[in-house]
From TrEMBL:
The lineage of its organism: Bacteria, Bacillati, Actinomycetota, Actinomycetes, Micrococcales. It comes from the Bacteria. SUPFAM superfamilies: L-aspartase-like (SSF48557). It comes from Promicromonospora soli. This is Fumarate lyase N-terminal domain-containing protein. Gene3D superfamilies: Fumarase/aspartase (Central domain), Fumarase/aspartase (N-terminal domain).
Length: 395
């Protein structure tokens, strides 16, 4: 059964984290292994080209159908690599012995998940860049706009809209840095049957030469040793994806408060068909923020599954804990990708009513004067984050 996003508003058309993307990542890992063998002189380059062509055919127009078939057959061996490998070998039987030689299913599946997570992180980081640019503009524009500060759901003291937006920026910027750092560090997975590389050692005198060539083919850093039961790369990825959802969840929470009719300080960007109600045609629902909050609620529990699986890893290959990671990581990646895209759209088109903000402040605190150093906080946040970005670019 293909996942077309029926219960995933905002995810339709996702080609970064869906099952077809996973299938293509699995094929990419297998092809890169053959290309690595060619790079170290173990097989002719023409062999790698033939396997690459067969993989491209399998992962082409009929990839969705193949994904369904592999999913159905994967119950037999407990993972999708085994039936997919059979299809790839059948497509080029003359190279069957070279495909997957020396590897184990976990090498390929973990590496494929790393590729999917890396692509998802890069997509989310691009949209986080958009979001940070948009919210920095909001903070600068509304630096001095008085607003009611609220704590514990009650009127507190005066602040500015710009200071509130600068708070959003701090969280989004931190999430962007964390996610980009994690994406760049996601490593190749290797080890063979039990993390001892005996299968690879049977192919070449120095197995690490071949492993390094595999990493080079995929553009992935090669860790010092196998990490089959040591799930740190996945727990860090899960944490970064969840933090992205949390940062946008904070934004969504404030927007959902600000768009209430009795508050009226904010409005989501309008678009044809957006925010409609099946029963109340007068409504303009804040659907972007609603969907951001959805992901902020779901992501921590998915990340917890990944952490729990890491804590239950055993021996040289885990029995069940590893398997529990796969859907959690895929769903986390989707939440982060969709959240960053919708969040950027929200912030780029967010409408701010400074008159409503001033009115609400006066009603709640009619005798209040001043906004503390809120404008200076905006300046400080913008300046320091700009300096951080400049330093990162220079390094």
């Amino acid at each position: 059964m293909p996942d077309v996003g029926l219960l995933w508003p905002g995810a339709a058309g996702d080609d970064v984290t869906d099952d077809v993307a996973v299938l293509r990542a699995l094929l990419a890992a297998e092809v890169a292994w053959v290309r690595a063998q060619a790079a170290v002189g173990r097989v002719p380059g023409a062999d790698a080209d033939a396997v690459g062509a067969a993989s491209a055919e399998l992962g082409g127009a009929a990839a969705e159908r193949l994904a369904r078939e592999v999913a159905l057959e994967s119950a037999g061996g407990g993972n999708p690599v085994i039936p997919l490998l059979a299809r790839l070998r059948a497509a080029v039987p003359e190279h069957a012995a070279t495909i997957h030689a020396g590897l184990t299913s976990q090498d390929v599946l973990d590496t494929a998940l790393v590729l999917v997570l890396r692509d998802a992180a890069h997509a989310a980081v691009r949209d986080l860049d958009r979001a940070c640019t948009a919210v920095a503009r909001l903070a600068r524009t509304h630096r001095d706009a008085p607003a009611l500060g609220r704590t514990l759901a009650q009127a507190a003291v005066p602040t500015t809209l710009g200071a509130r937006f600068a708070g959003w920026l701090g969280g989004l910027h931190a999430a962007r840095r964390f996610l980009a750092e994690v994406a760049g560090a996601l490593p190749l997975a290797y080890g063979g049957a039990a993390g001892e590389l005996s299968g690879v050692a049977g192919l070449i005198n120095d197995p690490f030469v071949l492993v390094d060539a595999w990493g080079a083919e995929l553009g992935l850093p090669v860790p010092p040793g196998p990490w089959h039961p040591t799930r740190t790369p996945m727990t860090r990825a899960a944490a970064a994806l969840a933090e992205t959802c949390a940062a946008f969840g904070h934004v969504a929470g404030d927007v959902l408060q600000g768009v209430r009719p009795e508050v009226g300080e904010l409005r989501e960007p309008a678009a044809p068909g957006r925010g409609t109600s099946s029963a109340m045609p007068h409504k303009r629902n804040p659907v972007l923020s609603v969907l951001l909050r959805r992901s902020a609620i779901a992501a921590p529990h998915l990340a917890a599954t990944v952490q729990s699986a890491a804590g239950l890893a055993a021996d040289e290959r885990s029995d069940g804990a590893w398997h529990a990671e796969w859907p959690a990581l895929q769903q986390l990646a989707r939440h982060a990708v969709v959240t960053a895209r919708l969040g950027a759209e929200l912030l780029e088109g967010l409408e701010v009513d400074t008159s409503a903000a001033a009115r609400n402040l006066h009603i709640a605190l009619p005798d209040a004067r001043g906004v503390g150093v809120a404008p200076a906080i905006v300046d400080r946040v913008l300046a320091q984050l700009a300096a951080t970005e400049s330093a990162m670019e220079e390094s």
